Amino acid sequence: MPEAVQLLGAMKKLKEKPPVKQALRSSWEDLVLWGEVVDGMLLPMIDLHTDLRGILLAAAKSAHMLFVMYRRHDTGLCSSQLYHDYQVM
């Protein structure tokens, strides 16, 4: 499990390093968006010093991003069950 958390945390850092090849730009942007969503869900587990306000703001950001992603792409990004699971978290 720690490896999975590290991998998801690394997704958040992708924003800092755009790809050199233009052909990879679209996939990179998708991963950056998912990194933002994952950041809000993992914040309470990664950063134990964040206050409640920070945790709630990160969770609200993730929830709103997931809502927009679902409204725009329906189940094209992930199954509706996964969207539900994310919202419950």
Report on the architecture of this protein:
This protein is mostly helical. The chain has helices spanning about 1-15, 25-45, 50-75, 80-89. The protein contains 4 helices and no strands. The longest helix has 22 residues, at about 25-45. It has one domain. About 75% of the residues lie in helices and about 0% in strands. Helix 1 (about 1-15) packs across helix 2 (about 25-45).
Task: For this entry, give a set of tags.
4 helices, 89 residues, mainly alpha
Task: Tell me the number of structural domains.
Answer: 1
Average pLDDT figure: 80
Helix fraction? Answer: over 70%
Percent of residues in β-strands: under 5%
What overall geometry do the principal axes of the alpha carbons give? globular
Summarize the structure.
It contains four helices and no strands. By secondary structure, it is mainly alpha-helical.
Secondary-structure map:
Layout: H1 2-13, H2 25-46, H3 52-73, H4 80-88
Helix pairs in contact: 1-2, 2-3, 3-4
